[in-house]
Task: inverse folding
């Protein structure tokens, strides 16, 4: 049975208690820690930068996936890669030279992910898919936590799965945005390997249990 991966996103947490949140994630069954960096240009929101990444590196025991929602991400790859980052995910829409950016990420010793906005078709990945560790399908328009899951994403997951098989590629399919205990099984059944979840975990009374419940579809 495949190991369905869950990556809690700390975007929706109370930053006054970031250490406590990271402790919870460390104790949980989460596979990765998902960290959203936003620049107020690529998306209409600004999240945080290197001082927070430094704190995360010191306290997280989970592999860190950095989701860069910034323009010209190539300008920051080297700086960000120094904070114990396992995977860097950039947006195809933010990269004029996506192939080159993917190679830069790998040359820094990180896994490479590419995220696609809800409207972006899979075609932009045609000639880079074999180089990718992860394709992250955005199931919301990026920028904010707590939005509703866009249902067309399910079809996109299925198409991506076939595309990856046809290309004989190895990329994981990750789904980011609006994921909760009610839709996670359908997401898994559509072919996803991993989900990112923020508000459904951290707005719940028991984040540890919420993480477990997202991982649970594999036991059904
Ligand atoms: C949105 C971010 C997501 C966000 C998910 O732009 O990329 O990672 O934190 O939050 P939820 O699960 O609340 O949609
Ligand atoms: Zn994200």
Result:
């Amino acid at each position: 049975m495949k190991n369905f991966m869950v990556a809690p996103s700390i975007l929706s947490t109370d930053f006054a208690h970031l250490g406590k949140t990271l402790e919870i994630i460390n104790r949980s069954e989460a596979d990765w820690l998902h960290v959203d960096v936003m620049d107020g240009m690529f998306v209409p929101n600004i999240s945080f930068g290197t001082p927070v990444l430094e704190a995360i590196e010191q306290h997280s025991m989970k592999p860190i996936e950095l989701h860069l929602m910034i323009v010209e991400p190539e300008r920051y790859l080297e700086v960000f890669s120094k904070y114990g980052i396992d995977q860097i995910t950039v947006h195809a829409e933010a990269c004029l030279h996506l192939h080159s950016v993917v190679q830069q990420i790998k040359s820094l010793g990180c896994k490479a992910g590419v995220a696609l906005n809800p409207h972006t078709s899979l075609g932009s990945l045609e000639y880079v898919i074999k180089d990718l560790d992860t394709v992250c399908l955005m199931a919301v328009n990026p920028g904010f936590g707590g939005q509703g899951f866009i249902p067309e994403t399910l079809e996109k997951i299925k198409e991506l799965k076939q595309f990856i098989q046809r290309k004989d590629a190895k990329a994981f399919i990750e789904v980011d945005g609006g994921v909760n205990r009610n839709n996670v099984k359908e997401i898994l059944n559509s072919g996803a390997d991993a989900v990112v979840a923020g508000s459904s975990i951290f707005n719940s009374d028991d984040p540890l249990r919420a993480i477990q419940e997202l991982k649970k579809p594999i036991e059904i």
About this structure: The longest strand covers residues 85-91. The pocket of zinc ion (ligand 2) is lined by residues 9, 34, 36, 67, 176, 196 (CB under 6 Å). Strands lie at 5-8, 33-38, 64-69, 85-91, 111-116, 134-138, 172-176, 194-197. Residues 22 and 60 are 6 Å apart (CA to CA).
